[in-house]
Amino acid sequence: MAQAIPLVTRADPTATHGALTEGYLTQPLVMAHASWRSLRGVSTLNFEGLTLDRGELATGGYGEGYVDRRHPHAYVHELLVGAESNGGGLRGSLFAGRGFAPFGSDDPMVRPFEKYPVNHHLSQVLERVVAVGALRYGPVIAELGTFNGDEPTGPGASPNFDRFGDSWSSRLTLLPITGGEISASYASVTSPEVRAGHGLDQRKGSVVARFSRETPTSSHYALLEWARTDERDNGTLTTSLTSLLGETAFCARGVILGARLERTDRPEEERLLDPFRTPRPSSDLANLGVSRWTTITASISAPSVRAGVASARPFVEVARIGVAPGNPPGIFNPELRYGTRRMWMYSAGIRLRAGSMHDRMGRYGVAMPDVTMSGMGTRLPDRESDTMPSMPDMSSGKGAPMSHQMSKSQCSL
Amino acid sequence: MQLVMKRRVTASAILFLLVAAACGDSASAPGKPDTTGTTIDTTGLRSAACPAINLGPKPAVLSLAQSNPATLQVLGSGSETARYTAEIAVRAPVAYTTTWGFRSATGNKVDIWDVSGNTPTLVDSLIVSGASTLGDVAVSDDGKLLVVATERTGGSIVIYDLGDPKHPKLLARFNNADTDPGVHTAEIGRVNGKLYGFLSIDPIGSTPARIVIVDLSTPEAPREVFTKVTGNPFVHDTFIRDGLLFVALWDNGMEIWDVGGCGTGASPEAPRVLGGVKTLNGEVHNIWWYHDPNGSKRFAFVGEEGPGTIGSSSRGDIHVVDISDPTAPKEVAFYRVTGAGTHNFSVDETNGVLYAAYYNGGVRAIDIRGDLGTCPANQQIIDGATNLARCDLRLMGRELGVGLIELNRGVYVWGVQYLDGTVYASDMVNGIWKLKAVR
Hints:
The structure holds two protein chains of two kinds.
Chain A: E1 2-12, E2 20-36, E3 39-46, H1 48-51, E4 56-63, E5 66-70, E6 76-85, E7 90-99, H2 120-123, E8 128-137, E9 140-147, E10 167-174, E11 180-189, E12 201-214, E13 218-233, E14 236-252, E15 255-268, E16 289-301, E17 305-307, E18 310-325, H3 334-338, E19 342-354
Antiparallel strand pairs in A: 1-2, 1-19, 2-3, 3-6, 4-5, 6-7, 7-8, 8-9, 9-10, 10-11, 11-12, 12-13, 13-14, 14-15, 15-16, 16-18, 17-18, 18-19
Chain B: H1 2-23, E1 46-47, E2 50-54, E3 70-71, E4 74-79, E5 84-91, E6 94-100, E7 109-114, E8 121-127, E9 133-139, E10 145-151, E11 156-161, E12 169-174, E13 183-191, E14 194-201, E15 210-215, E16 223-229, E17 237-241, E18 244-248, E19 254-258, E20 272-277, E21 284-289, E22 299-304, E23 318-322, E24 330-335, E25 345-348, E26 353-357, E27 363-367, E28 380-382, E29 389-392, E30 399-403, E31 413-419, E32 422-427, E33 431-436
Parallel strand pairs in B: 3-30, 24-29
Antiparallel strand pairs in B: 1-2, 4-33, 5-6, 6-7, 7-8, 9-10, 10-11, 11-12, 13-14, 14-15, 15-16, 17-18, 18-19, 19-20, 21-22, 22-23, 23-24, 25-26, 26-27, 27-30, 28-29, 31-32, 32-33
């Protein structure tokens, strides 16, 4: 599967105090998965390092040395191999490679909005060298993973392999109804922002409720998420960051309407002369305070235009953004930083895809719920399947190595 | 050679006697039991690893009563509200304060204040191009040079001529690949008569922190003479005195480098690590090697820069390190302010008072006379994790004064400098303060 999104974003105002309009090729990636008997392979190559070096305008967003812009992801976003056991009521899997730690919600890339939420670094732990084990019994999934705590320092930077195993996370997921799931996660991440170690550690918690269902002509999707990250120094709490996010999408006749409401705390950091960049690592362990971001996003996507396995779906997103001092406020002052407390962000683009996309990103093996997604809805058993040759029918709920998107669905993203 | 050393020791002892007698304080006369019965060692102390440095006699044990600290009297202030103020350097009658980060303007300005009166008056300023922060500033011992450190756009030091102290003139700017991405601090000092700059360089990405030493003997043409990757993960500051370089290595603690003081052939071009200590909690930020008026040079003061929120909170103790054996320094005492953390120091060595910038805790004045590593059990705190027993300077009655807190207007003090009975403080939020010293 391949994807790219030609995108134009206007942010008004930005940290420059003025409006900026920019165009990108965002989220250019290639996904592949394979299976042979009980062995599985998952890969996602992300080429944002080539197209998004300056970052994508995303007012409120932050992480990995970018602020008010989303950072480019690592070229090797996911590359894992694993094995699954399929026998009996208790199933298990073990995956290792570079990818997601078992924590929080799905990567925003596979959710119905182009813009990432502010809470990306509170709600996902990704691009680490991980070993993830999962057990599933009926509607219960338990995952445990260990990984290196350090975040990538650039798209092409290698992880600090010496730190593999210094961090861990776990996630428990319940599947009470078809298409519905509730999960709770905890993560202990050592010095994510200082590659050499000795930075602030993080203790992270997340609770997610997710629902998705799809018919041949419609789909529903909803997600409610609470996440919290406590930053600690030698075991002592220094800063708490909390996020509450709700998002929903509805698709009928190929038209997708989406809405997202988010309130997320962001740690403020010293900026470089480029006001969209912060030093990585920072010069010390202090911050400038906490800011609180409230963002309402609405999106509409037109029906896909298809040609063979390729599709093109135009979309528009509008975000109204409010920022206020958080707790503690420190020296953060939105008027000084932005000249206002209210901002807009407008985006228009076309989601170009060819082939089948991973529906869920951030889960491996038996941790993938037995729902076959089509971007945002649970596929009903009677709809057409484009399951790859040699891949089990994922609607069966057993032995599905990787849920992937049906590119022929009217409601594919 | 032995004769020369003995004469030096004898002279030191006589000087010590005279000063102690003149002080007439609780400092006991050498060679006699003091009030707590401790006998003072009048012999100078030399380490085999550093024979040319005489660490002087063992300081007297003082017995002080605990009392409420005095309020440092504010004499005046100068306001800077467009930028956040950072470090301060004073050579009367002029003070230089740098700026940091972004407020309504970028921290690329050096404010120049006339501090001859009680109220500092802004008389000029410098704008340094290509910098987002000017984290450090220093004046050479002869008053001829001003050196400013720049961060996060390649990193550099900018050298100004102080022929007219109120209107410095640019002499040179030094930067190279080793100063990337930023010079966090730049201390300057002489080694065997030659002026050097000791630069602490920020880490970036997977590139670690480092020390760079620059020959400033021809200030128009600075020249790098040494560099070393060090610090874990940061190296924030150094302290140069008598040919010893004290290096703040964050979680690797404090190291003492011989850069020419020990007489064993080391130099700024070829430093030699004498020893080091990992102080409790790490996060070693800054250091002051104290020379007391009696000739004792046994203690170094280490600032711990814990995490904080600028403008709101901070954390980090002052750690007292006994360097009697410079190859194996050991932590013996500490000072803590609940709810605040220390930053830079300045010491009135004549009166034995350490002034510490304490961010949201204002300015603190601490009595550092005498032996800080000897105290009764009820003045000791034993660290649970390491079982290290340390004297608590507060319990020892060493807290002399607190400044700026009583104003109740929110301060975040970055740096201090003591000079001739006055304490100058740079406050990130408000600008510059002039306070009366406690002694």
